[in-house]
Amino acid sequence: xxxxxxxxxxxxxxxxxxxxxxxxxxxxxxxxxxxxxxxxxxxxxxxxxxxxxxxxxxxxxxxxxxxxxxxxxxxxxxxxxxxxxxxxxxxxxxxxxxxxxxxxxxxxxxxxxxxxxxxxxxxxxxxxxxxxxxxxxxxxxxxxxxxxxxxxxxxxxxxxxxxxxxxxxxxxxxxxxxxxxxxxxxxxxxxxxxxxxxxxxxxxxxxxxxxxxxxxxxxxxxxxxxxxxxxxxxxxxxxxxxxxxx
Length: 246
Description:
By secondary structure, the chain is mostly helical. It has a single domain (33-238), classed as MetI-like (MetI-like fold). The protein has ten helices and no strands. It has helices spanning 5-22, 30-39, 41-75, 77-92, 95-106, 110-134, 138-146, 151-188, 196-205, 209-238. α5 crosses α6, α8 (151-188) packs parallel to α9 and α9 packs antiparallel against α10. It is elongated and about 70 Å long. The mean pLDDT is 86. Residues 48-234 form the ABC transmembrane type-1 domain. Belongs to the binding-protein-dependent transport system permease family. It is a multi-pass membrane protein. The chain crosses the membrane at residues 46-72, 84-108, 114-133, 163-185, 211-233.
């Protein structure tokens, strides 16, 4: 049985306060985090907007690249055999480790942040979209083909609508991941932007734990809101397609 949300929050707050007393060098008191949020609210808000913008740009780039490649891999077996091994290698590559190298290679501008965030979002979208495009039932395909539907018509009127639940399942994963990618990129290029990743990196170096945890809390709230937003959009879009799974 799940505990009511207020009870869970109260338990977490009590555990936090207990941990803050026992391990003050790891956890700041909750009132200190709250004071940091309220006193410097504008600072966190502006940082959140910067990080959100970087996350959105990386997500859009990763989505566009993954969707195009998913279409190509679903239509052309040769492309699938060439692309999928590379995609798997990129997926298992620890981006936290290569992020500093990207900053060195491309400088402190937006490009390394775009690459890091886009790569984090790329693989789930590619796999889910390709799976959805290829999972159209064969009898339905035969019906469309008896109506002389061409490859483009099959793609846009059958395969893409059928793949929408798979695409939204991927988006529910990558929307929060895009924030992680943006933060990793910012922390690898600390001082080059005013995002929350930079705030965490600078505050950590100065042992300002309330700022660190306040930034993390803002990021957590942003992730939850993004997840709720994509879930609402998914429900509205899928209602328009008969037979779409919940």
